[in-house]
User: Which sequence fits this backbone?
């Protein structure tokens, strides 16, 4: 690539340009090129025409509807790992904004949509997820020349709703056993894996035998939520569960429907049934991951280790479990008490020498 020229910037894979017209007004438009050199030629020609007194003819964007964009976006999204869930969001958005003109979208449009969903009882996290899909869809519309940049600028101003991340629901040992006893035959090994490996539902349902090394005792996740590889040790309970599972000759998915041979797409209904049978309320599958982490911390496992097992990008994400280990804080102040009161000989001697601790 040649030296970068001022006035060119990227939107996705397409180069856009910025220049002043004959009146001095700033014009921003797509060059429609993904190749940098061709984008340079496009911008150079625009600037040359302005210098000659020729008003550049800026291509106008047609009046596309959201439905037209969403259909293209749905087809494009099929290549994405999370398409199974995303397709329901897209369908929902088409029902709401189907014939709405893309050029009519603005900050208020999306903020009104947020408010409407909150009034329906949706939680902020749920609203943020569907608005995230909407904004990404409109971003692709910008890349595909179906949406103007002036409209997109109004869209990106919308801020996500604040979420209450304080919820930490986990099961006691007794509740855990009751839930396992209430699980159906196909659900029980999935729940055991969640409780003993701390894996997300998607990671479990996408798990293949190629990811499991029973000989060395670990599970290798190549594709995780944060995009990083993660190794998870296999304990005795999980090993026994995996060894008891039927295994197809071609390997394939660990958890699959024997009737269809396909992996389970979702286990929400059977999990809800198991929770009701066990008398457990306000509990979701993801809370099994909280249960895994909570009991590790309460057993004295340090937060750094728990963070690595969960696959958190930063320790800050794991600090929500720190209050479950009060003995660590108690132990810390006990150490201070021992130091200040001279119960450690070497430390006491040092403090005496520094004049910090005095006899009598």
Assistant:
């Amino acid at each position: 690539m040649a030296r970068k020229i001022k006035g060119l910037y990227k939107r996705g894979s397409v180069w856009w340009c910025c220049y002043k017209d004959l009146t001095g007004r700033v014009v921003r438009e797509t060059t429609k090129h993904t190749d940098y050199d061709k984008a340079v030629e496009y911008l150079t020609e625009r600037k040359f025409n302005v210098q000659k007194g020729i008003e550049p003819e800026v291509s106008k964007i047609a009046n596309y509807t959201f439905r037209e964009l969403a259909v293209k976006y749905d087809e494009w999204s099929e290549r994405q790992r999370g398409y199974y869930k995303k397709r329901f969001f897209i369908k929902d958005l088409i029902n709401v904004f189907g014939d709405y003109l893309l050029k009519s979208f603005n900050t208020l449009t999306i903020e009104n949509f947020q408010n409407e969903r909150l009034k329906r009882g949706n939680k902020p996290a749920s609203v943020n997820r569907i608005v995230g899909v909407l904004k990404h869809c409109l971003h692709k519309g910008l890349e595909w020349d179906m949406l103007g940049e002036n409209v997109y600028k109004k869209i990106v101003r919308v801020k996500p709703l604040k979420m209450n991340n304080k919820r930490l629901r986990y099961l006691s040992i007794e509740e855990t056993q009751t839930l396992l006893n209430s699980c159906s035959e196909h659900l029980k090994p999935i729940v055991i894996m969640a409780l003993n490996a701390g894996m997300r539902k998607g990671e479990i349902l996408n798990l293949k035998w190629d990811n499991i090394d029973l000989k060395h005792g670990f599970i290798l996740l190549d594709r995780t939520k944060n995009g990083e590889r993660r190794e998870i040790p296999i304990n005795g309970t999980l090993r026994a569960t995996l060894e008891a599972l039927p295994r197809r000759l071609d390997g394939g998915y660990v958890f699959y429907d024997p009737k269809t041979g396909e992996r389970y797409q979702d286990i929400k209904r059977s999990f809800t049934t198991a929770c009701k049978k066990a008398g457990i309320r306000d509990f979701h599958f993801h809370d099994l991951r909280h249960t895994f982490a909570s009991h590790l911390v309460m057993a004295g496992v340090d937060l750094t280790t728990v963070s690595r097992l969960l696959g958190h990008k930063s320790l800050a994400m794991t600090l929500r479990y720190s209050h479950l280990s009060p003995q660590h804080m108690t132990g810390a102040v006990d150490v201070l008490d021992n130091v200040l009161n001279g119960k450690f000989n070497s430390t006491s001697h040092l403090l005496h020498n520094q004049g910090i601790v005095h006899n009598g």
Notes: Residues 112 and 118 are 10 Å apart (CA to CA). The first strand starts at residue 8 and ends at 11.
